[in-house]
């Protein structure tokens, strides 16, 4: 089953929200070794979700190239 871009973007946003929440909550208990490990893992997962979310959008240069290609096909 293939997921469209909008569903992937929503999944990435939900993942970012959840991992950021865990990172914030565990930051209050950094003296506890389990909380410290969870904090590091959640922070790393947040970075992964943010990177995934970024790659789901086309860059401005790709959009500009596509618009030029469309104009050339029309002429």
Automatic annotation (TrEMBL):
Source domain of life: Bacteria
Key words of the record: Membrane, Transmembrane, Transmembrane helix
Transmembrane segments: 12-32, 38-57
Protein name: Helicase
Organism: Halarcobacter bivalviorum
């Amino acid at each position: 089953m293939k997921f469209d871009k909008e569903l992937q973007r929503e999944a990435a946003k939900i993942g970012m929200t959840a991992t950021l929440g865990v990172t914030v909550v565990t930051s209050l208990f950094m003296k506890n070794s389990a909380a410290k490990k969870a904090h590091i893992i959640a922070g790393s997962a947040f970075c992964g979700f943010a990177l995934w979310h970024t790659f789901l959008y086309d860059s401005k240069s790709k959009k500009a190239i596509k618009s030029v290609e469309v104009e050339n096909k029309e002429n």
